[in-house]
Amino acid sequence: MIRKAKGFYETFDRKEPGTRATHYCPGCGHGIIHKLIGEAMAELGIQDRTVFVSPVGCAAFCFHYFDCGNVAGPHGRASAVATGITRSLPGKVVISYQGDGDLGAIGFNNAFQAANRGEHFACFFVNNSIYAMTGGQMAPTTMLGQKTTTTPFGRDPVKEGYPLKVCEILNQLEAPVFIERVSVSDTKRIMQARKAVRKALEIQRDGRGYAFVEFLSPCPTNWRMDAVASAQFVNEKMEKVFPLGNFRDRSAEPAPVAKAIPRLTVEELLDRGHEGGPAQVDHEFRERRFKFSGFGGQGVLSLGLVVAEAAGASGRFVSWLPSYGPEQRGGYASCSVVVSGKEVGSPTVDSPDVLVLMSQPAAEKFAMTVPDGGVVIYESSLPEPKVRPGVRVMGFPASRIAAEAGTPKAANTALLGALTALELHGLSEGKVLLALDASFAAKPALVERNRKVYQAAFDWARNNL
Ligand code: SF4
After folding, report:
1. Which residues contact residue 196 at a Cβ distance below 8 angstroms, ignoring those fewer than 6 apart?
2. Is there a single domain that holds both residue 305 and residue 391?
3. What pLDDT, in 10s, does the model give residues 110-162?
4. Which residues on neighbouring strands pair with residue 396, listed in sequence order?
5. From the CB of 139, is ligand 1 less than 6 Å away?
6. Which member of 56, 219, 423, 429 lies 3.0 to 4.6 Å from 75 by CB, making a disulfide possible if both were Cys?
7. Crossing angle between the packed helical segments 300-313 and 411-421, to the nearest 10 degrees
8. Domain at 73, CATH number
9. Average of pLDDT values for 305-321?
10. What is the pTM of this model?
11. Which residue among 222, 230, 233, 234 is best mutated to probe the pocket of ligand 1, counting the most ligand atoms within 8 A of its Cβ?
């Protein structure tokens, strides 16, 4: 009987409410494959615990059709998204649905590594030997001699390599439980494909591991053929290159069991034993966003880290995000710190309330990002940076103070003293000093020396700024 599979929504409201047809071209294999999946999902009784990850490609709108949990993956990343879901929600039935451009090219490493780890999801791979959604370019699975918009004279193995046989590659791995290549070009083949879909989903229902099904699927539009000729093309051309059959079925073997790991709460994971304990929501606390910037080796990242640690010890929500060039010393370095009374939405700081500058390139890069009302503290041996109207600029002789206090390399600690003296971070001096001391836990001899620099800087800032 020809009817809609039970696993589908009643209507497909992608564009018009009440639509009953998919967006696929006539003769396309996607609709058939969808029906096999929707039918199996409903009949195996797993619909309510199925999460379907749709790809980028012609099937990018899967979530308008399947009546289950749906997530749209970025291009080539459906297997990575499926991995995340299956690991965070064990017990769900997870499906990654991907085309040959999506899985075979940009996402191959994601898919390959997921298969190698034996992640617990079913990967349905649609091979129509072409990039379909973007207009028929050569895909990794394009056959030798096949004409596409980017191989108008046919794929040449010398220039473009050979068609990627994904089932054969995955069959080299230990972990996959089930691998099969099927076709949806005619009724007999569709019935075999139906069995493979069911088997892959049964393996997921029973939590047995990774299952991979490749579908040879017609794309009449990009092949520039009618539906009948496309089906023949699959049978006569594609099957020669991509032979159908089961490569592996280990579903009857006992499933390996992972070693148990201790379960920790988020608080246990995050609480590293500082006295402040987990952060507390405080809507009265004004969020402060900092950028500390300079050269690598000036201690810019450590300065931000001390502020972040002091904030954490004060029960604030905090993030610290470093950014640096490849050089160990002398390259560009900066870090963004957000101190907040509520969970930090984003750790990036594009418009800092407080900007600390320790180098000229940093001044050129960041000074104009500080908004009206913000503060810029710069090492005063540098030229005064150009800032926007309404920004307070303060030159601070961090290097000179550190040198006079006996530790020339501690200009970053001097800046910490100035920040505290000017009350720019909203944290108590006690917490700041504890964090400063803790940052030298591995070099106790430096604790007192940095305290001395800190105090000299604090006093200078109080008296002069
Ligand atoms: S372009 Fe090809 S793969 Fe895409 S919907 Fe049309 S027939 Fe199907």
Report:
1. 180, 182, 213, 246
2. yes
3. 999 999 999 999 999 999 999 999 999 999 999 999 999 999 999 999 999 99
4. 379
5. no
6. 56
7. 40
8. 3.40.50.970
9. 95
10. 0.68
11. 222
